[in-house]
Amino acid sequence: MMVSGIDKESYLRYHRSSMRELDDRAFLTKYDREGMIFVLDHFVDQCKEAIETGERFDFPVIEGIDQIIVCGMGGSAMAGEIARRFARVPLVVNRSYTLPPFADEHTLLITISYSGNTAETLSALDQGIGRCTSILCISSGGRMEEIARTRGIRFLKIPSGYQPRAAMGYLALSLLIALSRIGLLKEIGSCEDLLGGLGKIRTRCTYTVPTDENPAKQLARTLSGRIPLIYGTVDNTDLIAMRWKTQINENAKQPAFWNVFPELNHNEILALVKADLFADQFILLLKNDYDRRENLDRMSIMTGLFEKSAVRFAEVKAEGESELAQVLSQIYLGDYVSYYLALLNEVDPTPVALIEEFKQALAEREALLREKQ
């Protein structure tokens, strides 16, 4: 179907005794205590709502915009990465406390923070006020909404109550539709095709579909106990590879890494010299209908090298007709895979306690520094 390179008969024979876990509702509820599966299944509806939000948003056509800077972190930055894929003008995703030095009056500055309280993004927004004449803020509230309302900055509000990474439909599609309406986005295809493609992923990957018919469950089982290496292609599936990596980190609480063609052929390919070190790793090759021929050739040669070196890998193909449908369908599949991988790791996919502990420690350190000043 969407995943090739896995010997399905051998897979099912090897895992038959243990694969029942992912088909057991009690196993699901034991670890998914906050119900992320229902958020995942709702993603298609979230995207539909986000499209409607973007269409209703009142943002004037702007003249003289030469570039876009999207400031955000984590799941909020991913919305910028998707916009970068389809922007008509140069778009930079800025994950920093500071704005790039080229930000000026010809820059559309977009700051995205799901909570509205992301320190790095608020810092960049503060610097952008006065430097960039056109600013758009996107969040569910928080400090960002307060600043936007006070300073008269256009503000696009999205629903609260989600983990930022689980609100990607609200963040990305609201942004894409807004940019499209002001003429800064390429053609992204019909919304019907997009929602239809996502609906197919949900139909095949939701928890009620048994493992032997569910590609997301099968791939999660294949990755269980291994370190995924996700390979995409530059200016195409690179953002999807990044998303798979970060979702596996946050949902499954395990290591994962990503890289892109053709860059990896100039360095990471040499890791095959020590192919024995790949014993605990599994490579995923992301493919869609918009890969350059040169990169497809590179992938083909690499698969031959993987086979020669006995390195395990699989190809993951996209659904949908349009570019945007294919991008989001692969992202959606990866979200399901990371969810089922969390269950196999016996962890709740929703909480990110270590991130919260880190933020608290950072806030305490900054408070001490302010007291000393």
Features:
14 helices, 373 residues, Rossmann fold
Kindly state the mean pLDDT as a whole number?
A: 93
Strand adjacency order, main sheet = 1-10-9-7-8
- CATH topology of the largest domain, anyone? Rossmann fold
How many extended strands? 10
Description:
The protein has 373 residues and is an alpha/beta fold. It has 2 domains: 3-31 and 191-344, 3-Layer(aba) Sandwich (Rossmann fold); 41-181, Glucose-6-phosphate isomerase like protein, domain 1 (Rossmann fold, 3-Layer(aba) Sandwich). Helices cover 48% and strands 14% of the residues. The chain has 14 helices and 10 strands. The strands form 2 sheets. Strands 1-10-9-7-8 form a 5-stranded mixed β-sheet. Strands 3-2-4-5-6 form a 5-stranded parallel β-sheet, with helices on both faces. The longest helix is centred in the C-terminal third of the chain and has 22 residues, at 323-344.
Give a brief description.
By secondary structure, the protein is of the alpha/beta class. It has helices spanning 8-15, 25-31, 36-41, 43-56, 74-86, 119-128, 142-151, 168-181, 191-205, 215-223, 238-252, 293-308, 323-344, 353-372; strands spanning 3-4, 67-71, 91-94, 107-112, 134-139, 154-157, 227-233, 257-261, 281-287, 313-317.
